[in-house]
Amino acid sequence: MGSTANPFNTAPARRIVRPAAILLAVMLAGCTVSEDQRGHLPDPDKLAEVKPGATTKEQVVKILGSPSSASTFDDNVWYYISRKIKQVAFFSPSVLDQQVYIVDFDDKGVVKDVGHKTMADSENITPAPGATPAPGRELSFMEQLIGNVGRFGGTGGGKGAGPAGK
């Protein structure tokens, strides 16, 4: 019988195989899946304690805690927002679940309504393309380059000596 030698048991092969195995292990470790719960989702029992027409803002804070957000245009609308996301390695995260409880108050600070929205109620919004125009004119690269000649590095206090010599 002939002996068969292990091709990975030679010194050159060990110098390649070991680092390759370590690199593979590190790369696979980076492909982990992470799920994160962000925001505060009020307990259903606590939400049942909030009664429209009876519960005040102060009582809502004691029962549910501080809201995640308040309406930009109306301080009488509070949002309790919760989102569960999943992310694999460096890829963009995907939303698994999203819930929003909306507490609407009247002008006296008493709860008017408690609403609930889920991912089924959400809508994708496409931002307007382009940039917001700024006043003034756009200068080309060459105009910017030539316009800066002599502006910096002057030792005197005259024009072109930087911000101090305006």
Task: Identify the CATH architecture of one domain.
Answer: 2-Layer Sandwich
CATH topology descriptor of one domain:
Beta-lactamase Inhibitory Protein, Chain:B, domain 1
Helix-and-strand structural type: alpha+beta
Query: Which CATH class of one domain applies here?
Result: Alpha Beta
Strand content: 15-25%
> What best-fitting shape do the alpha-carbon axes yield?
flat
How many strand segments? Answer: 5
Tell me the number of helical segments per DSSP (H or I, 4 or more residues long).
4
Give a quick summary of the entry:
The chain is α+β, with helices and mostly antiparallel strands. The chain has helices at residues 11-29, 44-49, 57-64, 141-147; strands spanning 33-39, 69-70, 77-88, 94-105, 111-118. It has a domain at 33-122: Beta-lactamase Inhibitory Protein, Chain:B, domain 1, CATH 3.30.1450.
Give a quick set of tags describing it:
166 residues, alpha+beta, Beta-lactamase Inhibitory Protein, Chain:B, domain 1, 5-stranded antiparallel beta sheet, 4 helices, 25% strand
What would you note in describing this structure?
With 166 residues, the chain is an alpha+beta fold. The protein has a domain at 33-122: Beta-lactamase Inhibitory Protein, Chain:B, domain 1, CATH 3.30.1450. Helix content is 24%, strand content 25%. The protein contains four helices and five strands; from the N terminus they run H-E-H-H-E-E-E-E-H. The chain has helices at residues 11-29, 44-49, 57-64, 141-147; strands at 33-39, 69-70, 77-88, 94-105, 111-118. Strands 1, 2, 3, 4 and 5 form a five-stranded antiparallel sheet that branches. Strand 2 (69-70) and strand 3 (77-88) form a beta hairpin. The chain is flat.
